[in-house]
Write a structure and sequence with these properties.
The chain is α+β, with helices and mostly antiparallel strands. It has 2 helices and 4 strands. The model has no long low-confidence stretch (mean pLDDT 92). The chain binds flavin-adenine dinucleotide.
């Protein structure tokens, strides 16, 4: 977790927030912060395959910070 001022502040580190943050970083915007209450991000679309027994639930989880 960081504190202070940032040029870009994204509220919510879900699919939309992480996608926008990654695109901004790739374009060279390094002062980007994401406010996200949970520490783990779950890739929800893969849950369908977890329910069908084709993927492990653990593969849908990633640390928000990463
Ligand atoms: C089982 C399942 C299967 C799916 N399959 C597909 C698929 O095949 N294809 C597809 O395109 N979509 C699929 N989806 C939908 C897709 O996952 C969602 O549309 C997508 O995650 C929405 O992204 P989002 O960033 O808007 O919201 P989310 O990914 O839900 O992110 C919102 C984030 O905001 C955070 N937040 C909430 N309140 C606050 C607050 N006050 N302050 C800060 N942060 C906050 C939450 O913790 C969360 O991390 C599926 C969904 C599910 C559940």
């Amino acid at each position: 977790m960081t504190t202070g001022m940032h040029k870009v502040l994204i509220v919510g580190g879900g699919t939309a927030g992480i996608s926008v943050a990654a695109r901004l970083l790739r374009k060279g915007h390094t002062d980007v912060a994401v406010i996200e209450p949970s520490e783990v991000h779950y890739y929800q679309p893969l849950w369908t395959l977890v329910g069908g027994g084709q993927a492990k639930a653990s593969t849908t989880a990633r640390a928000e910070a990463s």
